[in-house]
Amino acid sequence: MKVLLQRVTGASVSVAGEVVGSIGRGLVAFIGVASGDTEKDARYLAQKIVNLRIFSDQEERFNLSALDIGGELLLVSQFTLLADTRKGRRPSFTDAAPPAEAEELFQQFVDEVRASGLKVETGRFQQYMQVEIHNDGPVTIMLDSKGKV
User: Fold this and answer.
1) Which of 39, 52, 63, 130 is at 20 to 30 A from 8, Cα to Cα?
2) Helix, strand, or coil (residue 82)
C-alpha cells in the first residue's frame, strides 16, 4: 500500500462538479492499494500519517503531528500510485489490487484514520475526481507499507 501525503492549508475533492469533501489545515493522502496488501498495511499507514510529525512548532521545526494540531484529512483512492513505468511509454497497473479488494482496504484505511478522532473527508472510489490542493510548504512525502508490516 502506498500513500502520497501532502501537508495543506486547505483542499477539496469534486465529482461531476459537486464538492464531495473539503478540509482546512491538515493532510491530503492519496492511497494506492496493491495486490497482496492486507488490513495490517492499512492500519500501519493510517497510524503513520496521523502521527507523522510534519507540522511546525513555534521554532519552525517538524515536531507536531496531525493529532497534535487537530488537523483535518482528505483521503483519496488513487490506483495510479502503483504505476510501473519501467517498460515502454504507457504505465502498467498490474500491481494494483482489483477494484473490489482495493475498495475494501481503502475503506478499512478510512475507518482506521477516523478512529483517531480527527475530521476525515474522502473522495469517491472509482470516480473521476478533481482535487484542489493548497500545498503548505510544500511538504509532500511518499509512504509505502511494503516491508514494514
Assistant:
1) 39
2) helix
Place of cell 521545526: 61
**Given CA atoms 101, 72, 19, 91 in this order, what sign does their dihedral have?**
negative
- The 10s digit of each residue's pLDDT in 2-13 is 999 999 999 999
All residue ranges of the chain with pLDDT < 70 are 149
Catalytic site residue from 38, 80, 94, 140? 80
DSSP H helices, the chain, are: 39-51, 66-69, 99-114
Structural domain containing residue 139: 2-144
Which of 110, 111, 85, 90 is closest to 3 using CA atoms?
110
Domain count, the chain: 1
What cell does 99 get?
477494484
Residue at grid coordinates 502506498: 2
Residue 34 domain flag? yes
The residue among 10, 27, 1, 12 whose CA lies nearest residue 123 is 12
Residue 94: active-site member? no
